[in-house]
Amino acid sequence: MPNMVLNNVCPFVDGKFAKPTKMCLVDGKWADSAPEGTPEFDAKGALALPALFGLGLDFKEPLRDDIYTFKDGVCAMRRGGFFGGLYESSANPIDDSQKLTAMQQLSAKSGLEFAFLGAFSMGYQCKDLSEMVELAQGGAVGFGDGNCDCSRTRFLRLAMEYGSMTGKRFFFMPLDDSLRHHGLVHEGSYADTLGMKSIPRIAETIAAFRILEMARFLKVPVHFKQVSCGETLKLVETARAQGVDVTCDVDIYHLLLDDSCLFDLDSHCNVPMPFRSAEDREALWKGLESGTVNAISVNHDPVLRQDKEVNFEDAVPGAVSLEIALGAIWKPLSGRLGAARAVELLSTAPAQLAGVEPAALRKGGQANLVLLDQDCPTKVVPSMFAGKTRNTPLLGKELSSKIVGSYIGGIWNEV
């Protein structure tokens, strides 16, 4: 549906929400008027936000399309109000130009804006370097680790030295596997009470420090994915003061949950970066306030139901979030940091990290937007999710806000 009229909608323009008005969406743009007979939708005072950009997307296809497909992911993005995302699949490393081209062709059919991370090692094995120069020339916006620890420091140096020729940023999930040592949850009182294998903070901070030292020595830009503890943010601040080009993000679930959620023994809370203490969660929020944290990520990682509906210790780590991210985080985020900063963290900054033009609502401009009723509590149910997966820690919980529709790439999607 290329044309749409939204009545009683509050568009976000110039850093604030306008009073309820009419928006005419024609051929993907915000126009002064629409052709006669254009369908209309009563937004009932809903907020019209610039569409979001997702960091950390993994749709599993082709090697694990039994779990999820690219089509499922695109559907989830439209439901959740995302106009694009940064893609990196742990199951499908983009380690040569042919794989990159295949993913670009697949994404071109979606009508959404995708950026891709190339793998800096073949198969994320940290044994052989990928052709990073060819990947960069082909359009890769940076190089990632596939959320796998590169424990061989010499290989890390060789990879970053070679990759530095491209000027691209390296993306790491800082977690030392040898210190993780089969741990599942944060090392703290809740893990002790439940008798669960745990992951100390130093598994994150030591990995982060090693990467930052390498980045400082080689003058290579780096990004930390899914930062979970306050000490890592202090390392980031120190490194920036020393001239290191380092950015970082935090995951929406780490802003909403801490390790107290473990008492439910819900296997959906088994995620790659563990939920840390309430003090750590507060440190992440303060990192958003201070600007230490550059963006909020979604880390959409589908897992089959049978791999989650098991004991916590046996569950496959991962969580999906695209369909419910905005409804879950908007009210606490905008309430604490303000609407303008919330839009920046969810839309503008993630897009800029991926080298993609951010969405913005301006008359005559591209109208990629999501409609949010911020005062409509909504229960998270399986039917909200695309594909066959529903692995979210918020399943059965209540969101503070509800997405009522999106208009992305000239397509209206009523939720």
Description of the molecule:
There is one protein chain. The protein is α/β, with parallel strands linked by helices and 415 residues long. It has a single domain (51-360, 389-395), classed as TIM Barrel (Alpha-Beta Barrel), CATH 3.20.20. It has 12 helices and 21 strands. It has helices at residues 70-80, 97-108, 132-138, 153-163, 177-180, 189-194, 202-218, 230-241, 252-256, 278-290, 325-337, 339-353, and strands at 4-13, 16-17, 21-26, 29-31, 40-42, 47-50, 52-57, 82-87, 113-119, 142-144, 169-172, 185-186, 198-199, 222-224, 246-251, 295-297, 369-373, 378-379, 398-399, 402-408, 411-414. The strands form 4 sheets. Strands 1, 2, 3, 4, 5, 6, 17, 20 and 21 form a 9-stranded mixed beta sheet that branches. Strand 7, helix 1 (70-80) and strand 8 form a beta-alpha-beta unit. The radius of gyration is 21 Å and the shape is globular. 53% of the residues are buried. The mean pLDDT is 96.
